[in-house]
Write a structure and sequence with these properties.
By secondary structure, this protein is an alpha+beta fold. It has 3 domains: 162 residues, no CATH class; 189 residues, DNA ligase/mRNA capping enzyme (D-amino Acid Aminotransferase, Chain A, domain 1); 112 residues, Beta Barrel (OB fold (Dihydrolipoamide Acetyltransferase, E2P)). It is built from 7 helices and 28 strands. The chain has an 8-stranded antiparallel β-barrel with strand order 1-2-3-4-9-8-7-6. The longest helix is centred in the first third of the chain and has 18 residues. It starts with 15 loop residues before the first helix and ends in a 14-residue tail after the last strand. The structure holds manganese (II) ion.
């Protein structure tokens, strides 16, 4: 940056007209330089037009366009007609509808006026490769326009009202809505919605007023979609978005809609059955390169069964049947997300499918029930085909035969109040990679005394801090509160150990 007292350079002596034109030319030159017009369907750059004299000032309201651009990262391009070109900003989250929320707007090169109506597919590999569609267009009024601040009122189909763009630094600007929200009843969803939980029963409920869904054996996730981005929160509030990059496209597919979804992230095996064991390979990975590889090897599907918020309005108090109707209308069925149908009536079809395919069970939901975040409600009843739940690991026993010295089985328990109750030891289902991971973890979390405060703990075991939650399948509960024939299914990172209790059919 030149100090303010620098001697005037040659340019400062140039006539005003030249100065005003130079940046314009340079900016359209930038548009031209970035593109190969043999390869892209975009309009070629022309010389900046002089404001047409034919258009009388009164009727020559300048035009604007907002394009939805599915480039490498989805964004919206705001372009305002000005001095014969289109001044342009890329807005990653779109035009804000709420004055409380300002969005980043990155200034980009000026575009030719022909771009006002451009929609098409820019080939991959070209600048801005991806599809471009017109999201909104109309005219605008200018209240202020300088290098730091542009204040306008939009008259579009979707965007209306007064906005200001203000520069924060270099090419970075913010866009702020100055008018009250277009929809004054609009509310932001709370960012910590917890999933509603089902109560375990041994038998399906009878009578009318139930809807039936398959129970999906994966991890529960609340999906927040805003500005074309999805954010996935697990049951215990952990952000797991980065682990499942294939679900990003769901956010992009929803464009500018604001939606909160409830569903289960599931990995399907070769027989199209949900496999918690397969999902294990995705649940604990943090390395971006490994995640990228695993997307191809163990793809996941976000199985959607509820919608909690829609375009600024809570659906929590609507009955299940109406939330379901809204969900169906969204038609969320893509490569990595599905909205399976539900059954109304006696549930016989759902029950039969779940047994026939050896699935975990079914969930029956009252069609007239509201959504109760974080509550284990009796309006949702789960019925399992086999016994399976999460347990807390409190120790381990060395293996016999080939596994001497290493982990042979896990001592698991559940909380009864503040007391960790020993439930049994799970040995089958433990595989080499899991054992290696557990060994490293247990080495750091070993303790001398038993974390179990109840139940008969076997001798010759090693104790660990009760911080690990695992999923275990078993055949029955004994009268002493132990589990029989347990099989280890996998590690859970989506549940807090202190929430692990014995699940008893009511
Ligand atoms: Mn763009």
């Amino acid at each position: 940056m030149s100090p303010s007292f620098a001697a005037p350079g040659p340019r400062s002596g140039a006539p005003m007209g030249t100065l005003r034109n130079m940046p314009r030319k340079r900016e359209l030159a930038e548009y031209e330089a970035k593109r190969d017009f043999d390869a892209t369907p975009e309009p070629p750059a022309r010389r900046a037009r002089k404001p047409p004299k034919a258009r009388a000032a009164a009727e020559a309201a300048p035009r604007f366009v907002v394009q939805e651009h599915h480039a490498r990262a989805l964004h919206w391009d705001l372009r305002l007609e000005r001095d014969g070109v289109l001044a342009s900003w890329a807005v990653p989250k779109g035009i804000p509808e709420d004055p409380k929320r300002n969005h980043l707007a990155v200034q980009t090169e000026d575009h030719p006026l022909e771009y006002l109506t451009f929609a098409g597919e820019i080939p991959a590999g070209e600048y801005g490769g991806g599809s471009m569609g017109v999201w909104d267009t109309g005219t605008y009024e200018t209240h202020k326009w300088d290098d730091r601040e542009v204040m306008v009122t939009f008259h579009g189909e979707r965007v209306q009202g007064r906005y200001v763009l203000f520069r924060t630094r270099d090419k970075q600007w913010m866009i702020h809505r100055m008018d009250p929200p277009a929809d004054p009843t609009r509310r932001e969803p709370p960012n910590d919605l917890k999933p509603m939980l089902a109560t375990l029963e041994s038998k399906p409920p009878r009578g009318d007023g139930w809807a039936w869904e398959l129970k999906w054996d994966g991890i529960r996730a609340i999906g927040y979609v805003e500005g074309g981005r999805i954010r996935l929160l697990s049951r215990n509030g952990n952000d797991v978005t980065k682990r499942y990059p294939e679900l990003r496209r769901l956010g992009e597919a929803l464009g500018t809609r604001e939606i909160v979804l409830d569903g289960e992230i599931v990995a399907f095996d070769e027989d199209s059955r949900p496999s918690f064991e397969l999902l294990q390979r995705r649940m604990h990975v943090d390395s971006e390169s490994v995640i990228r590889r695993l997307v191809g090897e163990v793809p996941v599907t976000y199985v959607l069964f509820d919608v909690l918020w829609l375009d600024g309005h809570s659906l929590l108090d609507l009955p299940y049947s109406e939330r379901r109707a809204q969900l169906r209308e969204l038609d969320l069925n893509g490569l990595s997300w599905q909205t399976p149908p539900h059954e109304e009536g006696d549930g016989s079809t759902t029950l039969e499918i779940s047994k026939q395919f050896g699935l975990e069970g079914v969930v029956a939901k009252r069609v007239d029930s509201r959504y109760e975040p974080g509550r284990r409600s009796r309006a949702w009843i789960k019925i399992k085909n086999h016994l399976q739940q999460e347990f807390v690991v409190g120790g381990w026993q060395p293996g016999e035969k080939g596994r001497t010295g290493s982990i042979g089985s896990l001592l698991v328990g559940y909380y009864d109040g503040d007391v960790l109750h020993y439930a049994g030891k799970a040995g089958s289902g433990l595989s080499g990679p899991v054992i290696a991971e557990l060994e490293a973890r247990f080495a750091a979390e070993a303790r001398d005394d038993s974390p179990f405060g109840a139940g008969r703990v076997p001798k010759g075991v090693r104790f660990v801090e009760p911080s690990l939650v695992v999923e275990v399948r078993f055949t029955e509960w004994t009268s002493a509160g132990n589990i029989r024939h347990p099989t280890f299914l996998g590690i859970r990172t989506d549940k807090d150990p202190r929430e692990v209790v014995r699940e008893m059919p009511g």
